[in-house]
Each structure stands twice: as structure tokens, then as C-alpha cells.
Design brief:
The protein is of the alpha/beta class and 220 residues long. Helices cover 51% and strands 17% of the residues. An 8-stranded parallel β-barrel has the order 1-2-3-4-5-6-7-8, surrounded by 8 helices. β5, α6 and β6 form a beta-alpha-beta unit. The protein is globular and about 75 Å long. The termini are far apart. It binds SN-glycerol-3-phosphate. SN-glycerol-3-phosphate binds next to α7.
Length: 220
């Protein structure tokens, strides 16, 4: 499973990219608003992210009709070679996905909460499909089980193009673990959860013991 970072924050992206394990970034309108992003800077900001990351970067459209989404998607895709157009899972989004995919533009279908939605996205040409885990948990449903069903269903078929499942709305290292065990292709993880993924108390304890023992060697 590959790690994407779910953020629009350039400092967070630079820091996590420096670990050497980052394969991509996903953004959405909420994440751009969270960093105080301004409309006039949006495209330049996405370009900066694309330069920081060696891998696909999802930028989301905000139009509601297929024509608006296609126009926005074309503009976003022209920003950088690694730009992926993120489109919401609606009827209009499916139609826009088909048009953009036919033009060779990679689409990430977002806000996916069911197997039926995921299958429709794949059939409409989506390169990436993003089932949300945490938001499903938020309404007392089982987000991990839902993701597992989507991974299994998409794995049953050949869509004639590559389709990767992005486990989205990830909130914890345990979500990452569950996604990896079921074979999700990618997890897009927020900065705070990514920091938790790298930590383990036994690693910290082990390192402290090595340092203490090495001090005995040095001071002998
Ligand atoms: O990229 C979209 C998704 O990951 C959002 O997560 O935490 O806002 O539900 P969250």
C-alpha cells in the first residue's frame, strides 16, 4: 500500500516528503480553506504541491454541472503532469469523469460510500476511487468494512484501465493497518495520523536503551 498525504499545507508536504516514503498528495476544498487559501492563489498553490511531490496530486473541482467540472478539470490537469482531477461522486461527476478520462486525464472519484458508487466510478473511467472510512464511522457505520467491500468488488473485474483504491478519511494508524491488511492500493493520511504511524513506544524505549548502553561503551 502506498502513502499519500491528505493536506494542502506546503510545510507538511515538504516535511513528510523528506521521509522518502511519500507517493502522492490529496487535497480538497476544506483542506485548502483550512490553510487560509485564497481563490486567486488556488492554481499556483496546486502547482507548488505538484513540484514538491514525486507522484500524483489530487486537486478538486467545485462546479456542480458536468460542463463546469469538465472545464475546471481541464484547467487543473494543465497545471502539471502529475495533477489528478478530483471529482465528487454524483451523476454530473460521473459524466465529467467519462469525458476527462476519455481525454487521458486521471480522475480521482471522491465521496464514495458504497460498492455501487465505486463500480460506477470505475466504469466511468476513474483512475482512482476514494471510499471514505472515518466519515462512515462518524455516523455509527463501519468504515473499514465498507472499504473492504469496495476493495473486493473492484478487484473482481477488469475495467480495461488501471484502477486504484485510495482509502480516504483516514483518522488513525489503525485505519492504515486495516486498509493495508485488506489490500487497499493507497491510504491518504492526514499529517497528524502520519506522525502517529511512524511512532511506536517500543521503538522509543529500544532507542533509549541502545543510547544508554552505548554511553557505557563510550565511557568505559
Ligand atoms: O481527502 C478527503 C478525505 O480524506 C477527507 O477526510 O477527515 O475530512 O473525513 P476527513
Amino acid at each position: 500500500m502506498k502513502f499519500f498525504l491528505d493536506t494542502a499545507d506546503l510545510d507538511e508536504i515538504a516535511e513528510i516528503a523528506s521521509w522518502g516514503a511519500l507517493a502522492g498528495v490529496t487535497t480538497n476544498p476544506s483542506l485548502y480553506a483550512k490553510i487560509g487559501g485564497k481563490l486567486e492563489d488556488f492554481q499556483d498553490h496546486l502547482k507548488k504541491i505538484c513540484e514538491l511531490v514525486d507522484g500524483p496530486v489530487s486537486g478538486e473541482v467545485t462546479g456542480e454541472t458536468r460542463d463546469e467540472m469538465v472545464a475546471e478539470g481541464r484547467e487543473l490537469a494543465a497545471l502539471a503532469d502529475n495533477m489528478v482531477v478530483k471529482i465528487p461522486m454524483t451523476v454530473e461527476g460521473l459524466a465529467a469523469c467519462r469525458t476527462l478520462s476519455d481525454e487521458g486525464i486521471d480522475v480521482n472519484m471522491t465521496l464514495v460510500f458504497s460498492v455501487a458508487q465505486a463500480l460506477l466510478a470505475a466504469r466511468a473511467g476513474a483512475r482512482y476511487i476514494s471510499p471514505f472510512v472515518g466519515r462512515f464511522d462518524d455516523i455509527c457505520e463501519n468504515g473499514v468494512a465498507q472499504l473492504e467491500e469496495v476493495v473486493a468488488a473492484i478487484g473482481n473485474y477488469d475495467f480495461g484501465h488501471e484502477v486504484e483504491i485510495i482509502a480516504a478519511s483516514i483518522r488513525s494508524a489503525n485505519h492504515v493497518r486495516e486498509a493495508a491488511l485488506m489490500g487497499a492500493d493507497i491510504a491518504t493520511v492526514p499529517y497528524s495520523a502520519m506522525k502517529k504511524c511512524v511512532m511506536h513506544p517500543l521503538t522509543t524505549q529500544g532507542l533509549e536503551k541502545f543510547a544508554a548502553d552505548w554511553a557505557k561503551v563510550v565511557n568505559a
